[in-house]
Amino acid sequence: MSRFLLVDIGAGTMDVLYYDDTTDVHYKAVVRSPVKMAAEKAENLPGDLLVTGCEMGGGPITEILKKRARHRRVVMSASAALTLHHNLEKVRNWGITIIEDGEIDSYRSMKQFTTLTLGDLDIKRLKKLVEEFGVSFSFNFVGICAQDHGMPPEGLSHLDYRHTLFKEKLDKKPFPHALLYKAKEVPPTLNRLRSIAETARGLPAEEIYLMDSGMAAILGASMDKQALQKKKIIILDVATSHTLAAALCSEEIAGSFEYHTRDVTLEHLDSLIVELADGKLEHKKILEQGGHGAYSRKAFGFKATEAIIATGPKRRLLLQSRLPIHFGAPWGDNMMTGTVGLLEAIRRQENIEPLTYI
């Protein structure tokens, strides 16, 4: 019997789920994302800024630091600077000074600098949240998901590289939980997930897993009651930053596509869903349209689709869809989609008895 802690670190929120399969109880919380908190702190800190820590989700913190560097001195350790861009020369071109991690202490001693530490996982904050559930901060399994584009080789875009990473895993094992890694087995190219895994070593857990948040959401949404017992389904996770869709055939991924949420419209999504099921999406064409790409293994045809499930904090984009879309709530909560996916992925990896999601 096991105690699980599942954490989905997104661009807008951090979603936390605790589950004990002995008592069959679960507790949950949705709180502000680490990157939003870091951005607010960076905006309000006085003086010149020394930024340390490791790679975390970018977005808001990137824009704040770029803006601040126009007026005040911003110095970042090389590890933290990867948050802004994996090409550190670009970061320097924004007026930000990059130092080696070993130089941090010498800058920290300078009175004009205020220090900001970056990182997706704050164990003290997480401990406080979990203890408010009224349970012990000790687990058999911890699962954490976040989005990681990977660190592409020279000449390959982040978007294309993310597609390549997915394809390599799914060609060998065409299930969402193929993107689940034990903490010590996260590939070096997934630097954000590796940074989280390194911090997570401080958690009181017997085993720690990391997973891509997109695939965690796909798996979690497939646990919705409208998807269970159906063999041919389409899942959409319309998240704050990214929209990922997948066609599942008997739990296998038949195909998928991904866009930045800001770059898709309802009309476009409706047509993409049909093309996904029909196997007509082309990776190169999706890239040309500004998307992240498409993956295709097989097609079951849109007419054979048994259910279309939409989850994610921005799924209201689909409210006026011409398609028969069901707004999913795996385990009764749309915001727990990623954490439920983590739980199911770990269950499958560990060969634990199936759970009943209601």
Report on the architecture of this protein.
- This protein is an alpha/beta fold and 358 residues long.
- Helix content is 31%, strand content 27%.
- It has twelve helices and 16 strands.
- The protein has a six-stranded mixed sheet, sandwiched between helices. Strands 14-13-12-11-15-16 form a six-stranded mixed sheet, sandwiched between helices.
- A hairpin with a 4-residue loop joins strand 2 (13-20) and strand 3 (25-32).
- The mean pLDDT is 94.
Summarize the structure.
With 358 residues, the chain is of the alpha/beta class. The protein has twelve helices and 16 strands.
Count of helix runs: 12
| Mean pLDDT across every amino acid position | 94
Instruction: Return the structural class.
Output: alpha/beta
SSE series: EEEHEHEHHEHEHEHEHEHEEEHHEEEH
Which runs of at least 5 residues are low in confidence (pLDDT < 50)?
none
Q: How would a crystallographer describe the biggest sheet? A: 6 strands, mixed
Which strand order does the major sheet show?
Answer: 3-2-1-8-10-9
Main attributes?
single chain, 358 residues, alpha/beta, six-stranded mixed sheet, 12 helices, 16 strands
